Amino acid sequence: MPQEIPVDHDAAGCRLALVVSQFSSDITERLLAGALKTLAEHGADVASIPLARVPGSLELAVTARQFAAGGGCDAVICLGCIIRGGTDHYDCVVAGTRQGIVDAALQTGVPVIFGVLTCEDRAQAEHRSTDAGKGNAGSSAALAAIQMANLMKRIDSK
After folding, report:
1. What is the pLDDT of residues 99-149, one digit of tens each?
2. Is 127 annotated in the active site?
3. Which domains are delineated in the chain?
4. Rounded CA gap, 84 and 122, in Å?
5. pTM value?
6. CB-based burial, 93-112: b 16+ in 10 Å, e otherwise
7. Which of 9, 42, 89, 127 is catalytic?
8. Exposure string (b/e) for 17-52, b if CB count within 10 Å is 16 or more?
């Protein structure tokens, strides 16, 4: 049996950063509230977490990469909301945002969490951002960031 590295959701001591899109801010603010609530519940000092607000989802990646490349973060959480419209602009924004966030993580070796809603309509976005706890995609992104930050630390110490 392999030696499995245990899952750890203790945020105490994790150096995290948040990047939040201002587009669809009614949704992204609820994602942020969910992330902050979850981080606090798991022991993070939320007052010390840097928060950068960017115009839209395409700007999440470059900002996350800057945080990650600076060496002061164990993980970066990106929160945004992209809602399908009547043109192919949605597909371009989703693809660019996804690839940019993946590239930021791979280029820096720091987990960059994709907490971006990609929804068919506003009702889906509202559903996935309601309640600052269970069911809130910001909360899920925060848990993923804690787990990945701790996993990377454990791997580095092996």
Report:
1. 999 999 999 999 999 999 999 999 999 999 987 556 899 999 999 999 999
2. no
3. 16-156 (3.40.50.960)
4. 9
5. 0.95
6. bbeebbebbeebbeebebbb
7. 89
8. bbbbbebbeebbbbbbbbbbbbbeebebeeeebeeb
